[in-house]
Amino acid sequence: MQVLLSAQEVSKTYASNPKKALDNVSMEVRAGEFIGIMGASGSGKTTLLNVLSTIDTSSSGEIMINGVHLNQLDDTRAADFRRDNLGFIFQDYFLLDSLTVHQNIAVPLALQGVPSETVDQTVQALAERFLISSQLSKYPGELSGGQRQRVAAARAIVKRPAILFADEPTGALDSSSATELLHTLSEANRELGTTILMVTHDAYAASFAERILIFKDGRILSELRQAGRTRQNFYTAIMDQISVLDDNR
Ligand SMILES: Nc1ncnc2c1ncn2[C@@H]1O[C@H](COP(=O)(O)OP(=O)(O)O)[C@@H](O)[C@H]1O
Ligand SMILES: [Mg+2]
Question: Were 44 and a residue from 104, 108, 119, 218 both cysteine, which residue would form a disulfide, CB within 3.0 to 4.6 Å?
Answer without folding.
Answer: 218
